[in-house]
Amino acid sequence: MTRIQKYVAATAVAVALVGAPAVSYAASQGKAASGTHQRVTEAKAAVVEAAAKKAPAARIVAPGEHVKVPGGAEIWLTKEGKYWTTPENPEPQFRSVVDGNIDLTQPGVSMQSEGVAGHYFLSGLYYGGKGTASRVTVETKSAAVRGKLLELAGRPGWGVWYATAEVPASDDKGGLGYVEKVTVRTTQGKVYAQLKLN
User: Fold this and answer.
1) Domain extents for the chain?
2) Could you report the per-residue pLDDT of 162-182, keeping only the tens digit for each?
3) What is the pTM of this model?
4) Does domain 59-196 have CATH number 3.10.20?
C-alpha cells in the first residue's frame, strides 16, 4: 500500500470508531441519560459527604473535663449545663439546661460576656437545631470572630460555644452592645441556631 492509501484507510477506521458510539447512544438515549444522571447525583452526594467529613465539629468532652481558654478562663460541662471561671472571677458560674429556662426543642443561642485580660471572653449555650453543629461565628461591631464548640458525648441536643474578642476603646456596655450576632452552623453550612443582639 502506498502512503496515501494507508492514510485514507486509517482515516476511514477512525471515522467509523468515532461514529459508532454516537449511533449506539442514539439507540439507547433514554437509558444512557438515566445512567448519567444517576452517576452525577451519586458524585454530588459523595462530594457533600466528603465536605461534611472535613467540616470542623464540636469537641467532645467528658462530663467535668476542664477546657482552658486563652486568657485564663476555663469551661466544663455536666449533664446539667455549662460551668465556667475566669481569672477575675474564680468562683464557678453556671448556666443550666435542665431548669426549664431554655427549650431544647427549639433552636437557640445564649451569651455571657466578661472582660478577661484586655479581651472579651464570650460564651454561651446552643441548642435545639437540626443537623450537627460544626462552627460558630461571632459578629462584632469591628470584626467577625471564629469561636469553638464543646459538647458531651451522645448527642445531648445542646452544647457550649466560646470565643475571645478584642475590647474596643469606646465600649462601655460589657460586650453586650459590641456583639451583634452569634451564629452556629452545621457541617452542611446551614444555620443551626442564631442569636441577634442588635
Assistant:
1) 3-54, 59-196
2) 999 887 766 555 555 788 999
3) 0.70
4) no
